[in-house]
Amino acid sequence: MSETYTAVLDRIVDGETAVLLLEADGNVVDDLPVAVERLPAAGRHEGAVLSVTVDRDEGRLLEATYRADTERDRRESLQDRFDRLSERLSDRGDEN
Predict the structure, then answer these.
(1) Residues 6 or more apart from 29 whose CB is under 8 A from it?
(2) Is domain 2-95 annotated with CATH 2.30.110?
(3) pTM of the model
(4) Do 23 and 6 contact (CB within 8 A), yes or no?
(5) Among 13, 21, 49, 94, which residue is least crowded by beta carbons within 10 Å?
(6) Model confidence pLDDT, tens digit, residues 45-87
(7) What's the burial of 95, exposed, middle or buried (CB within 10 Å: 0-12/13-18/19+)?
């Protein structure tokens, strides 16, 4: 049985194995090690967001599509949160 997930490339081990974190409903539900060469060339970096289809019975990657727009949106959202937190922390420093 195959299932489709959003996946984030968490890390590349020894330059050969990519560890994908599989997400469902915004939560990490599993990880999947795959050979780096099985991923689209543009998505072979840490933090890459992909849409993947996985054979759950065999635990293997069937298909992967790099989602550059989704990755960019996530990075921008994280940067915005970081900026807001930094502003609040610097405001607290002025109170002392």
Answers:
(1) 5, 22, 23
(2) no
(3) 0.80
(4) yes
(5) 94
(6) 999 999 999 998 999 999 999 999 999 988 887 777 887 888 8
(7) exposed
